[in-house]
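Shipment paperwork, digital attachment
Item: protein structure file
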Amino acid sequence: MLWRIDAQSPQPLHEQLAGQIRHGIATGELAGNEKLPPARDLAAGLKVNMHTVLRAFQTLRDEGLLEVRRGRGTTVAADAKSNTRHVELARRLVSEARRAGLGNREIIKLVEVQL
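Attachment content:
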């Protein structure tokens, strides 16, 4: 899979990369348990700081889409494809709620009421 970073975009670099990896998982271009390139190599190829790549990986790990194991590398979580839909729905909910003027606590309360 080929990733690109647009330095002119207002979207932060790590979010651009995370979004492209999310898309790859959702479309099946990246399969469960597939190993990603080392952060250092990916950063060099994209001409970004390694911490930018690590931040993207961390975000996706927190979303349950990647598994990051020190010394073993980063792989797509086995159940990542099924999780991408829920992650995207949550991202849309937060985005819409913020546009409506809701703060973090109000958004959390909104979700808790539905549980």
